[in-house]
Amino acid sequence: MGDMKKYQGVIPAFYACYDKEGHINADGVRALTRYLIEKGVNGLYVGGSSGECIYQSVAERKLVLENVMAEAKGKVTIIAHVACNNTIDSQELAAHAESLGVDAIAAIPPIYFKLPPYGIAQYWNDISAAAPNTDFIIYNIPQLAGVALSTDLLKEMLKNPRVIGVKNSSMPTQDIQMWKDEGCIVFNGPDEQFISGLAMGAISGIGGTYAVMPELFLKIYALTQAGDLATAREIQNEACRIIYKMCSAKGNLYAVMKAILAKKGVDCGSVRKPLPALVDSDMAVVDEAANMIDTAVAKYC
Length: 301
Known about the structure:
This protein has a single domain (5-227), classed as TIM Barrel (Alpha-Beta Barrel). Helices cover 47% and strands 12% of the residues. The chain has helices at 26-39, 58-72, 87-100, 117-129, 142-145, 151-157, 174-181, 194-199, 214-226, 229-246, 253-263, 282-300, and strands at 9-12, 43-46, 77-81, 104-107, 135-140, 163-168, 185-188, 204-207. Helix 2 packs parallel to helix 3 and helix 10 (229-246) packs antiparallel against helix 12. The radius of gyration is 18 Å and the shape is globular.
């Protein structure tokens, strides 16, 4: 499978960056890219759930990736999520991503209509065929996609030599062990169980809250690799408390995290409708969560 070291570590899921009119803010994309690289992350996962991909056009998703690559190419690993709810658009994004030189592409299964396993396999293989020189990662997120990866489907996909692994966002860490037994690498998805995923054999984590507190997840990873599980668990528990606090707002979680980043000088705008923006009362949650992050970083990092 080639050099898998580039997929190790902490890989934040990249946030959508909008201007005041709600359009893609290319300057914001570049600023967030620089910010995360400076924090020492190992890679970026662009165009996934955290990037609000299902609310963006093909052209907008290309624009985001182009600006990320302009800042990040050669500095960190880039994984581009390219799935749309039809094959043609997904292939267009896959080919575009390969032309930019990303390290890997990724895709969820098609949503809404429930396809049989062979239909999902055909969809993924068609996408992979549009980027024949690029690694392919299966994105397993059954709670949102409505379909779960099975061992039989994974075995079928591993016949494709470009398929290297699974971004696993199902909650059971047992799934990580099962996918590893089939010979692929696994990226831990749920941020609340990063340490557990690593313990079960995940090579790294791809997470939606990493970008707002990268220092904490980088420390968890480093401590886990060094065998200091007690301290890593302590930081993981604090990261979970921060996540719970951010989720307590009336506005969408990503709106909360973008507001926290704005306090740090990184303007990502708000979220795109129909995701709910923050209301005035949410600013207390933003401030408290930001303080929790700063306190934890000062204590552990």
